[in-house]
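Appendix B, record 7
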Amino acid sequence: MVTRTRRNIVYIDEEKCTGCGACIISCAEGALKIIDGKAKLVSERYCDGLGNCLDCPEGAITIREREAEEFDEAAVELHLQSREEESFPAPGCPSAGIIQMETEAPAAETARPVLKSVLGHWPVQLALVPPDAPFLKGADLVLAADCVAYAYGDFHREFLGENRALLVACPKLDDFPVHQQRLNEVLKESGLRSLTVLHMEVPCCSGLVHLARQAILASANAVPFRDVTISIRGEKREG
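Structure tokens (predicted):
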């Protein structure tokens, strides 16, 4: 029998919600999910009502008192376990759609210059880079979503090179509480000169922007910040 009681629980204003996924990252219980481009409450019993998701950049989330199912910690554990075992992105997520695009045929091999990598360090995965890595000291940091380098053809020339350090992460697939802590430490310890975030246009990917902004706040290191969106067709958009 389902027990209902009057308690605090999340409320989502869908008119304000942009589907950025920031609340998904903040909710340790997995009570929220992006469905059809909007954040939705998966089940009332997964929401503890404590409000970790209230850092929504659009102000779309509040905590309200109403009648709801009681919070069930055991059910949350089972839910999180089953979510980890999922093999595919959540239905309705824009990044899960299959798209096949027409591309221009490459020029003849004899006419193409050999492009050399300008990556100046290793590793690049955010979770693997120590906060005190020497290549981070005073660098212009580029934090890129995993897919960006494949989608944007001029990635190396425009965003890598002298005094630039690269860190990559996926806001949908990675363990973001761990990534948030690591990026916080990087900004505290490395003395970055600037921070550029490159992410894909799908809403869940903008969680990387949220990650960066939270790290700036946590570290009190107000570095110059640049937000760059790459479309699925490889077009660059600022902001």
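Remarks on this record: The helical segments are 22-26, 73-84, 148-151, 155-159, 176-189, 207-219. The beta strands are 4-12, 32-35, 38-41, 61-69, 140-145, 164-169, 194-200, 225-230, 236-238.
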